[in-house]
Specification:
TIM Barrel; 20% strand; 2 domains; rod-shaped; 6-stranded mixed beta sheet; single chain; 11 helices; alpha/beta
Length: 361
């Protein structure tokens, strides 16, 4: 302070407590260091690993964040039921779960659409019994980082904390959650999308089998001399109008090919009861169905007429001895179509042909 002559007479000290600013700066610096550590761990992963392995490694990397005690990678397909791809934790016994109930799946899908967020256990209805188990395990709050691929939500990273401060601990990581979610999406996106597609496909095929959402139509095979039908080929048609060849191919890809054949072929045998009794019934079967335990025998037992088996060419015959054994278990059947050693059918016999096509024998 100066007097009228400009001389300094005394000073006033303005004191400011910088501890809060330094605490904030230290906290932000720590978040950046943790984000960098998680990013480095994710960058070191091999994106070609199987999706369950890769999802587990992603979940383990997220546990590098302070205060995060559990991380779960959850896939959200088009189905009503989500799936748990990986579950990692430290210092807490998280109840294991493979499938997410429909109510909670919808809840998680809504959270993923809203972006990164943190919540306590207010949504008890959405979590149900699983939420009770998490609370019993000591989880105080959960946070969500969405996983996206090709512009759509395909899953979430669900992280939990045991810290009594709950939400306040996870809120510190909210700013870096979108970044971590984006890195994880880059790793998991393609594989997770494929996994979801297969899971959705499995659900659809299982529904078709359970509801018997298919029927048989019959294509005549005629004798050239007089154009009289001597046999009928059974063709499967699905209730939703989907191409039959694609349905059977999809079922094989997800490991339900035998189940779909086993469901559709008895329907063909039953429906054939309305055909002229002196005609043969021709059905298309895969080598795996012929080799299967008793499947051919059961099919023959259901039919009131001789059965002609046409072996499809979609898959090779890997074990000819087992194939011949399966053929012998079905007395009264005539197996049409030879195969070369590499498993190709000499005369292609697909599962389905156009109804208007007339076969000549």
């Amino acid at each position: 302070m100066r007097n009228e002559h400009g001389e300094v007479t005394h000073s006033i000290a303005l004191l400011r407590d910088l501890s809060q600013e330094r605490e904030i700066a230290e906290m932000l610096g720590g978040e950046l260091r943790q984000q960098a550590a998680v990013g480095a761990a994710l960058a070191a992963l091999d994106p070609t690993d199987p999706i369950p392995v890769l999802a587990g490694e992603v979940a383990s990397a997220v546990l590098l964040l302070d205060g995060v005690d559990s991380c779960r990678v959850i896939g959200l397909g088009a189905r009503e039921q989500g799936s748990v791809l990986a579950d990692r934790s430290r210092g807490v016994a998280i109840p294991r779960q493979l499938w997410i109930p429909p109510a909670r799946t919808r809840h998680l899908r809504d959270r993923a659409a809203e972006g990164a967020r943190v919540e306590t256990w207010v949504a008890r209805r959405a979590y149900g019994r699983y939420g009770q188990e998490l609370r019993a395990a000591g989880i105080r709050a959960v946070g969500f980082a969405p996983l996206r691929h090709a512009g759509r939500s395909i899953g979430v990273l669900a992280i939990g904390t045991l810290d009594p401060r709950g939400v306040h601990v996870l809120e510190r990581h909210r700013r870096c959650s979108p970044h971590i979610g984006a890195l994880a999406s880059g790793l998991l996106g393609p594989g997770l999308a494929a996994h979801q597609h297969d899971a959705d496909l499995r659900t659809e095929i299982e529904r078709i089998i359970a509801e018997r959402s298919f029927a048989s139509t019959f294509q005549p095979i005629v004798r050239l001399a007089d154009r009289e039908p001597i046999a009928y080929e059974a063709l499967t048609r699905f209730g939703d109008g989907s191409p039959p060849e694609r349905r059977f191919a999809d079922a094989e890809v997800i490991g339900l090919g035998i189940e779909l054949e086993t469901a559709t072929l008895p329907v063909a045998a039953e429906s054939a009861e309305a055909l002229p009794p002196e005609t043969l019934l021709s059905v298309n079967v895969s080598p795996a169905f012929v080799i299967g335990h008793g499947s051919v025998t059961e099919l023959v037992a259901r039919a009131s007429r001789p059965i002609v088996l046409e072996i499809t060419e979609r898959e090779p015959i890997e074990d000819y001895a087992a194939f011949r054994g399966g053929d012998r278990r079905a007395p009264g059947c005539l197996r049409l179509g030879g195969r070369r050693r590499r498993g190709r059918v000499r005369e292609p016999a697909a599962h389905h042909r156009a109804p208007s096509e007339v076969r000549e024998a």
